[in-house]
Please model this.
Amino acid sequence: ISRSIVMEKKRPKKKKTKMKAGASKPAFTAIGDLNVPIAPSWSPTKIDDCDVRCFKRDGARHPLVPKEKPYLFREPDLREMAQAIWPHDGTPASPVLFVGPKGCGKTSMIKQLAARCNQGVYRTNLHIGTTVKKLIGHIGAKDGSTVFYPGIVAKAMEEGLWLILDEVSGVTPHVAIALMPVFEAAGEVYL
Model:
């Protein structure tokens, strides 16, 4: 994990916001036998009253974009996260680890940033019963052929969506090892 953000428990002030309806599936292009997602285009955007460089995904609203709700962003936390997601120096985006007590707003901050940036999000809780199959995927059979059924991590990477892995401390060692390549700079999934 290249970035770690420690959050404190604070109650956000309520603020009324409106969300526009409408959704679409991600666009894909065929390269040989593969369907590859088309890279999204991004436009600069301002998040509430924070002086932080952020971007909004252009195009129709993805079905996995969270609903926009009132949220008070702490500018230092938003700045750290924005720097990891949209680096200023041209380096690739890096995974972010949020650390803090239960209920301090770790997940809600990511979801509300995603809502304001038109970014789809997959989310799952990690626990003792979480399997590599659920996260990465598994091989199976369909109509006499061998097929790969992607897990939530593979789907998020394939579709270019954000991934929230809640309660990372609850994962078993063999699942944590399977996730390590995802958190590397190259961000790969080994099937």
Observations:
- Helices lie at 75-85, 106-116, 132-135, 152-159, 173-183.
